[in-house]
């Protein structure tokens, strides 16, 4: 047993020695059936007194790490190494018996669906066209730090630090009802609002509460892949609805459809806006069939031409539309804060479900967001963010027009541009090749239920990219497309 003690440390030598021996026991560095070194031998090896070694051993005995065998010495406690004699694999690197987790884990119902893959170190690449990320330099750091600090002082500290059980921050809910939702044409009371850890948790809550095995869910195709995972995990079956330049194409009717999931403001992933005629048609079909409509409104305020379309929820006269909103796209996805707007009866059911899952989103973040909105900084930040994104959007439009030799329709809003490449293009292969040139794009085929038929599609997010990198990045993409097609 070779070890060292630090004679300059204020910690007593016997305590240092005791820690070293305990760590060795836990790591399996000692033979379970061999005695520990004698106090005399260990004292000579380390140049300390026998009393120091004896004190260390006494503490290890008192805590059950070692036991004394009469006329034999000190040994590891057998309770630390269960199993019959001879069955132990001694020494470092031993591999004790393990649980066969593969036989214990239940198979996920969505195992057959592809998953969205994100490059973890995307920020290190010079040309970043990823969706769902933001440029950290655009975040209102000083203003956010100020409200975080203010939220820890009275009269706000109580709501930041309490266990709210199932309740939300009343100030944030009130401000949502008075200052945020009316701009979307939504007039509701606090009883119709539930805060979530982002819109994805809102989808999960709705799926658990409203769906069961075999229920039919109509989804946009192409559409939001994570939503499909959530619905399938709840036991639902997916019914695809095609999308064109005016948004989702209504089916003949919604008979037997339990839930319809839509992204009407900026369709995910193409960013087209659902036309007003189709909005009214879908609401009429949902009313006739008893279908619940989930409006996933993840970035409605990010529009660069014209005014944002009114929310589908604002047209709802039956309480049939459930509205999902988020702060992630306007500020930062890492904040994980969103909300659900629905009839009070559904909100109460969702609140009860959330209570036994996460209880509620962090109180400190809730109160800070409330102060951020109340101060007017939220709206200022949205305007600044929208202005910065507009400049990137304009640069993207110009670069695509300059370098792509096939037509690419550019929608009036959103944080990405959907590209249907030329026939024969393999976008997944293109994405892999471009990474070697420092360019990140996102494949689009997995957004379709029939991915194999749409390998020529990809998506260019621009929220996280630097403005000065847009032109060169788009040129490199165009060159790589031409090289592959040749």
Estimate the global geometry from the Cα principal axes: globular
Approximate helicity band: 25-40%
Second CATH tier, the architecture of the largest domain: 3-Layer(aba) Sandwich
Strand order of the largest sheet: 4-11-10-9-8-5-6-7
- Count the DSSP helices: 16
Instruction: Sketch the major β-sheet.
Output: 8 strands, mixed
Provide the CATH top-level class of the largest domain. Answer: Alpha Beta
Given the helix and strand composition, which structural class is it? alpha/beta
Number of domain modules? 3
Contiguous runs where pLDDT drops below 50 for at least 5 residues: 84-93
Layout of secondary structure:
Blueprint: H1 13-27, H2 39-46, H3 50-62, E1 66-69, E2 73-76, H4 101-104, E3 127-128, H5 141-150, H6 157-161, H7 170-180, E4 193-196, H8 199-210, E5 216-221, H9 225-233, E6 237-244, E7 247-248, E8 257-262, H10 276-289, E9 292-296, H11 312-315, E10 321-326, E11 338-341, H12 344-355, H13 363-374, H14 377-403, E12 416-420, H15 427-435, E13 439-440, E14 442-443, E15 457-461, H16 470-485
Parallel strand pairs: 3-13, 5-6, 5-8, 8-9, 9-10
Antiparallel strand pairs: 1-2, 4-11, 6-7, 10-11, 12-15, 14-15
Helix pairs in contact: 1-3, 2-3, 5-13, 7-13, 8-9, 8-12, 14-16
């Amino acid at each position: 047993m070779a070890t060292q003690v630090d004679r300059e440390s204020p910690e007593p030598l016997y305590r240092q020695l005791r820690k070293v021996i305990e760590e060795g026991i836990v790591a399996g560095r000692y033979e379970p059936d061999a005695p520990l070194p004698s106090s005399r031998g260990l004292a000579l090896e380390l140049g300390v007194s026998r009393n120091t070694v004896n004190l260390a051993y006494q503490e290890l005995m008192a805590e059950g790490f070692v036991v004394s065998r009469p006329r034999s010495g000190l040994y590891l406690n057998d309770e630390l190494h269960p199993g019959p004699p001879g069955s132990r694999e001694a020494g470092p690197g031993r591999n004790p018996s393990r649980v066969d987790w593969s036989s214990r884990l239940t198979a996920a119902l969505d195992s057959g669906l592809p998953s969205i893959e994100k490059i973890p170190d995307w920020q290190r690449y010079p040309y970043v066209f990823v969706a769902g990320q933001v440029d950290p330099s655009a975040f209102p750091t000083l203003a956010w730090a100020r409200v975080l600090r203010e939220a820890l002082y009275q009269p706000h500290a109580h709501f930041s630090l309490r266990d709210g059980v199932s309740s939300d921050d009343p100030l944030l809910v009130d401000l949502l009802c008075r200052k945020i939702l009316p701009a979307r044409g939504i007039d509701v009371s606090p009883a119709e609002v539930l805060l979530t850890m982002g819109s994805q948790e809102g989808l999960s809550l709705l799926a658990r509460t409203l769906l069961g095995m075999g229920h039919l869910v109509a989804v946009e195709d192409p559409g939001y892949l994570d939503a499909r995972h959530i619905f399938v995990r709840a036991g639902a079956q997916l019914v695809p609805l095609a999308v064109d330049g005016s948004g989702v194409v209504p089916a003949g009717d919604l008979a037997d459809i339990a839930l319809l999931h839509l992204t009407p403001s900026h369709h995910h992933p193409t960013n087209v806006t659902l036309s007003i005629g189709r909005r009214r048609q879908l609401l009429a079909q949902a009313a006739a069939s008893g279908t619940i409509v989930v409006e996933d409104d993840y970035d409605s305020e990010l529009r660069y031409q014209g005014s944002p379309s009114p929310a589908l929820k604002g047209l709802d006269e039956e309480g049939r539309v459930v509205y999902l909103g988020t702060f992630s796209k306007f500020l930062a996805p890492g904040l994980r804060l969103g909300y659900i707007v629905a009839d009070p009866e559904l909100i109460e059911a969702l609140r009860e479900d959330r209570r036994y899952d996460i209880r509620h989103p962090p109180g400190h973040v809730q109160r800070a967001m409330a102060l951020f909105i109340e101060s007017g900084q939220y709206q200022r930040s949205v305007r600044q963010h929208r202005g910065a994104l507009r400049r990137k959007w304009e640069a993207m439009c110009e670069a695509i027009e300059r370098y792509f030799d096939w037509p690419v329709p550019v929608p009036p809003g959103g944080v990405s541009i959907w590209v249907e490449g030329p026939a024969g293009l393999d976008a997944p292969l293109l994405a892999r090749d471009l990474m070697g040139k420092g360019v990140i794009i996102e494949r689009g085929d997995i957004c379709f239920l029939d991915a194999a038929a749409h390998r020529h599609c990809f998506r260019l997010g621009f929220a996280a990219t630097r403005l000065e990198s847009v032109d060169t990045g788009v040129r490199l993409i165009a060159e790589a497309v031409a090289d592959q097609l040749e």
